[in-house]
């Protein structure tokens, strides 16, 4: 191989290498960085029943009276939406934050999304109108009239005088799961 051929190949390889590096560099600078994908999860996860009571604005045994459509939240580009519903309850027994005989309204993701039925079970699913629930609630951050369920640890349906946890395998929810409602309420005092 001659000296001229050697230098020709060396220059060609160098040009190809620099061109490739420049192309990759340009591509990474001209495209917006990819946002990390995250899965939805509860804002708080409690390590004990006392911690969940302390973090709740209201702890109530309440009867579900009605379910009504709520607000609709839109994505930043208005292409996607998420509908909410408001579940209205009468407080059968106010343990914290609300009085017995009062009312509370809980906002949750609706099972009707733009005419399509969707089932959201991350919070225990739909409320049964007429059903009685032990709920651990937080007031909406905007100071409005609505509460939201603290998480799946904080919802129990009363069935036959006993509490059934939305998340019975959770150690915190398990402390009340299967107990009589009267015993559970005594524990919360």
**Structural class, judged by helices and strands?**
alpha+beta
Helix content: 10-25%
Number of strands: 9
The N- to C-terminal Cα distance equals: 93 Å
The largest sheet is:
5 strands, mixed, barrel
How large is the radius of gyration?
Answer: 28 Å
Name the overall outline.
elongated
How are strands sequenced across the largest beta sheet? Answer: 1-2-3-7-6
Instruction: Count up the helices.
Output: 4
Give the DSSP E fraction (strand runs of 2 or more residues).
25-35%
Helix-strand string: HHEEEEEEEEEHH
- The parts where pLDDT drops under 50 for at least 5 residues are 30-41
Mean pLDDT comes to 82
Describe the structure.
The structure is a single chain. The chain has 189 residues and is α+β, with helices and mostly antiparallel strands. The protein has four helices and nine strands; from the N terminus they run ααβββββββββαα. The chain has helices spanning 3-30, 49-55, 171-174, 181-188; strands at 58-74, 81-96, 103-109, 112-113, 116-117, 132-139, 146-149, 155-159, 162-165. The strands form two sheets. A five-stranded mixed barrel has the order 1-2-3-7-6. Strand 4 and strand 5 (116-117) form a beta hairpin. The model is unreliable at 30-41 (pLDDT under 50).
């Amino acid at each position: 191989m001659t000296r001229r051929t050697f230098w020709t190949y060396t220059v060609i390889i160098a040009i190809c290498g620099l061109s490739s590096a420049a192309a990759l560099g340009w591509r990474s600078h001209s495209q917006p960085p990819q946002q990390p994908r995250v899965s939805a999860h509860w804002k708080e996860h409690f390590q004990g029943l006392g911690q969940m009571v302390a973090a709740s604005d209201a702890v109530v045994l309440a009867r579900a009276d009605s379910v009504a459509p709520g607000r609709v939240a839109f994505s930043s580009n208005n292409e996607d939406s998420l509908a909410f519903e408001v579940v209205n309850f009468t407080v059968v027994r106010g343990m914290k934050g609300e009085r017995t005989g009062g009312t509370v309204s809980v906002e949750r993701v609706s099972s009707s999304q733009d005419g399509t039925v969707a089932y959201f079970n991350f919070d225990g699913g739909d409320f049964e109108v007429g059903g009685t629930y032990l709920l651990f609630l937080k007031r909406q951050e905007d100071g409005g009239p609505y509460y939201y369920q603290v998480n799946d640890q904080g919802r129990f349906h009363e069935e036959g005088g006993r509490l059934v946890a939305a998340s019975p395998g959770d150690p915190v929810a398990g402390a009340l799961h299967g107990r009589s409602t009267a015993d559970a309420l005594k524990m919360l005092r």
